[in-house]
């Protein structure tokens, strides 16, 4: 069993629907495994579109216990690799479609928040992809040129334009809209309650142990205390695909880190953007980012990621402490008024990444009527909701018109998670973190 993510996040889970353990034999029309945003979005869209459908959601813990409740609440348009890399790999037309899809995903989450009608700390604003190092400026220039060439409305900000928004000495930035910041746990819990109100049944504390083809129709899901038989199944389990030995390629589990501060002084809070729902992300891969909180505090994340394979608990905890310390040092350097800001929360979460930075959203090969969703690479707040809606439409036989997007696929590339090549993979990820910290 893997060591669970550490630390209590800033977000506190809201009221949840009842989620007893699954015992005995349970049947359903559709089984959704994973009560994060992707799984709950799928269940919600199924329940809305087909009210008579018998839907069961099962989770190893409870809704919002995983990445969906432990994120940092940045809602912005990003899907897969950066725009310039997407143009090189897929061509300008597909790269444009990818970015437009991510913009629609952001708007869909904003619409969903309105439909659910619950407070989730939502503040619409802007997301700045900013740079202050030479490496970051080079990356930013490539992305700006690609956006311009394929007709995306992504303005370039000078240092003066950045200072008008956030008082941090970045040299240039790309301005992404639509964007927002919110409480990811509140959104996830609200989505769970909305599903329950529409008749969706929940089971918690029931990790999936195995998946088998059913004797007659649909799959058999093996759980610690029972069996779940369904006509169709959706495995919104992200990087847990590796432990289940699902044939979806490598969705590598990485642990990422975040910290939150006490409320800042009024002048510092306003200088960093105040009531605007902005987030600032460095242009270098894996670099730190920050956003402000409605209560006057600040959340920072990024800068370090840990390959979990092969780590024992003491070593992992030591790496966590180091990552949190780095984040604290970084946020104190954003501007002088943050030097004395007290950190009140430190936590980690798990994301799933693939070798080509693209999610996997498609049927599981060898298992009729089973779909998998995962591998958003840390950009899953908007994409997870979009992926859940996409899979729900496919299960109901009403797929979206048009060509499939590059992440509508059944497998990701294989990565050397085991064996003698594993240290090379860890060295590569560690190297990205060191490069990001040098750039800051």
From TrEMBL:
Q: Which Pfam families match?
A: DAO (PF01266)
- Residues forming the FAD dependent oxidoreductase domain are 29-393
Q: Which residues cross the membrane?
A: none
Q: Which domain of life is it from?
A: Bacteria
What is this protein's name? FAD-binding oxidoreductase
Q: What is the lineage of its organism?
A: Bacteria, Bacillati, Actinomycetota, Actinomycetes, Kitasatosporales
């Amino acid at each position: 069993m893997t060591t669970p993510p550490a630390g209590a996040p800033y977000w506190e889970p809201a009221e949840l629907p009842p989620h007893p353990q699954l015992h005995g034999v349970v049947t359903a029309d559709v089984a959704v495994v994973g009560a994060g945003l992707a799984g709950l979005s799928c269940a919600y869209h199924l329940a809305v579109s087909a009210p008579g459908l018998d839907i069961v959601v099962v989770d190893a813990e409870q809704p919002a216990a995983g990445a969906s409740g432990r994120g940092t609440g940045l809602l912005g348009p990003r899907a897969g690799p950066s725009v310039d890399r997407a143009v090189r790999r897929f061509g300008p037309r597909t790269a444009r479609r990818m970015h437009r899809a991510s913009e629609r995903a952001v708007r869909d989450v904003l619409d969903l928040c309105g439909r659910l009608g619950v407070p989730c700390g939502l503040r619409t604003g802007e997301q700045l992809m900013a740079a202050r190092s030479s490496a970051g400026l080079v990356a930013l220039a490539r992305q700006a040129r690609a956006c311009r060439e394929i007709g995306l409305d992504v303005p370039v900000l000078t240092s003066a334009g950045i200072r008008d928004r956030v008082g941090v000495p970045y040299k240039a930035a790309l301005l992404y809209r639509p964007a927002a910041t919110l409480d990811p746990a509140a959104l996830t819990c609200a989505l769970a309650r909305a599903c329950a109100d529409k008749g969706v049944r929940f089971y918690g504390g029931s990790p999936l142990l195995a998946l088998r083809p059913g004797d007659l129709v649909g799959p058999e899901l093996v759980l610690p205390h029972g069996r779940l038989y369904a006509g169709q199944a959706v495995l919104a389990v992200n990087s847990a695909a590796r432990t289940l030995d699902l044939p979806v390629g490598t969705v590598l589990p990485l642990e990422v880190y975040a910290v939150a501060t006490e409320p800042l002084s009024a002048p510092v809070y306003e200088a960093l953007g105040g009531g605007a729902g902005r987030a600032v992300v460095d242009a270098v891969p894996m670099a730190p980012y920050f956003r402000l909180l409605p209560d006057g505090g600040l959340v920072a994340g990024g800068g370090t990621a840990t390959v979990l394979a092969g780590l024992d608990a003491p070593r992992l905890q030591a790496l966590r402490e180091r990552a949190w310390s780095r984040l604290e040092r970084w946020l104190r350097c954003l501007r002088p008024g943050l030097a004395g800001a007290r950190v009140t929360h430190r936590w980690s979460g798990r994301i799933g990444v693939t070798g080509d930075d693209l999610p996997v959203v498609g049927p599981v090969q060898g298992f009729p009527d089973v779909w998998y969703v995962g591998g958003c690479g840390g950009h899953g707040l908007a994409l997870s909701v979009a992926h859940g809606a996409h899979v729900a439409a496919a299960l109901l036989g009403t797929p979206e018109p048009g060509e499939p997007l590059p992440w509508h696929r059944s497998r990701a590339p294989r990565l050397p998670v085991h064996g003698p090549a594993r240290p090379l993979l860890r060295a590569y990820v560690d190297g990205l973190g060191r490069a990001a910290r040098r750039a800051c």
